[in-house]
Specification:
The strands form two sheets. This protein has a four-stranded antiparallel sheet with strand order 2-3-4-5, with helices on one face. It has one domain. The N and C termini lie far apart (57 Å). A hairpin with a 5-residue loop joins β2 and β3. The chain is mainly alpha-helical and 395 residues long. The protein has 16 helices and six strands. 67% of the residues lie in helices and 6% in strands.
Length: 395
């Protein structure tokens, strides 16, 4: 019902305001978010994890425009997915959401105001764009690698609820929220990734609970991002000139200088790279349907299938970074940063996963109790061995 209401409202607006041409001109955004919206609803990697690399690496959209697009479009898609999660009564770690979301909003403010430049169109980051892209790729890849390797074990305890909150776990959730909020301010996604990392890697929560929890947090961050960047700063209010170029953002004239948007009167900005409202408008009906579908799909797969899907997406993120970030072929310092960062992050997360009980104060598996099938995750290898034993293969 939510998706239908959004699509009907969108159709009425586009028809009444005669925006069909603008939607057609930005068809790439709609196509991108077919996959992006499904990912947003079904994994801890929000739609921005697809939109940001495709827009920046494939379509040459500036990082700050891609960041704002990711937040604004996730405010539609991930909110719709969150409502689907709530309507279908999927399990969410609400206590962790209540701790991580306020911290993520503080991190978002820090990322926007301390690391961004509000005096320029679209609030560009003060940090080098290539390093921002590579850092996000490293975090996603390291998280997916550690979770995937953990699920290579054939028998795992399935924890569907968080244990009693220790001070260390609360502190870890706050830190994860802060860091994730800063990442979201830079690339349009991250609060979901960091919350999932804490819940699944450190608190040993089932991914089928970690994913919807991360979706809800990212939806909240994205709604605030849409309000602050899209409405208050006016980034969604991109005005086109007679020739189709972007001539104003938020009511202020803009032009291009050295490939970047600046305030001032001039020839305007190429619409294909800077028409944030057009990109957003074209993608709205896609994400309104795709993200809830992703949330429903995630509820119907096993933990191991979900982890495998996340790993495939992380691999795709790494591959696109290697292909499209040209500086990785010309900047030795960036290459060293990527290699050392990958080793350090994966190593640190692996150690943290191994010693998670000591780090966050969660209890171990109650081995003195009987563990029912609902509390165990059994892999194919164990089933194959068991079937072999039954058939005399183990004799």
């Amino acid at each position: 019902m939510v998706s239908l209401a959004v699509v009907v409202a969108w159709t009425l607006y586009v028809s009444i305001d005669d925006q069909w041409g603008r939607v057609a001109d930005n068809w790439e955004a709609a196509v991108t978010m077919i996959g992006g919206s499904f990912v947003a609803g079904s994994t801890p990697q929000g739609g921005g994890a697809v939109a940001f690399p495709v827009l920046t690496k494939g379509l040459d959209v500036p990082a700050e425009v891609a960041r704002s697009f990711s937040l604004c479009i996730q405010a539609v898609g991930m909110t719709a997915a969150s409502l689907a999660i709530w309507i279908n009564r999927r399990r969410v770690a609400w206590t962790s959401v209540g701790i991580a979301l306020p911290a993520a909003l503080v991190g978002l403010a820090i990322g926007l105001f301390a690391l961004g430049d509000p005096g320029e169109p679209f609030w560009p980051s003060r940090l080098p764009g290539a390093y921002v892209k590579v850092t996000f790729t490293l975090v996603v890849a390291a998280m997916a690698a550690v979770v995937y390797l953990g699920y290579r074990r054939q028998i795992l305890e399935r924890r569907s609820h968080l244990p009693e909150m220790s001070r260390r776990l609360v502190a870890t959730l706050v830190v994860a929220g802060l860091v994730g909020g800063v990442a979201s301010a830079l690339v349009g996604s991250g609060a979901d990734v960091f919350l999932y990392l804490v819940l699944v890697v450190l608190a040993a929560l089932s991914p089928r609970v970690g994913v919807p929890s991360s979706v809800v947090v990212m939806a909240g961050v994205s709604v605030v991002g849409l309000v602050v960047l899209g409405l208050v700063d006016g980034q969604l209010m991109t005005q086109l000139g007679a020739s189709g170029e972007v001539v104003a953002v938020g009511g202020q004239s803009v032009t291009e200088s050295a490939g970047q948007a600046v305030y001032g009167v001039g020839e305007g900005l190429p619409a294909g790279r800077f028409d944030l409202f057009g990109l957003w408008l074209a993608a709205v009906p896609v994400v309104a349907v795709g993200a809830p579908l992703g949330a429903l799909a995630a509820a119907r797969v096993t933990d191991r299938q979900l982890v495998g899907f996340v790993a495939v997406l992380a691999a795709a993120e790494v591959l696109t970074t290697l292909i499209f970030v040209d500086q990785l072929r010309s900047d030795p310092a960036l290459v060293a940063y990527a290699v050392i960062g990958a080793v350090v992050l994966i190593g640190a997360l692996a150690v943290a996963s191994r010693w998670r009980r000591e780090l966050v104060g969660t209890p171990g598996a109650p081995v003195d109790e009987s563990l029912t099938r609902s509390r165990l995750d059994v892999g194919r290898g164990y089933r194959a061995d068991l079937d072999g034993d039954r058939n005399g293969g183990g004799a």
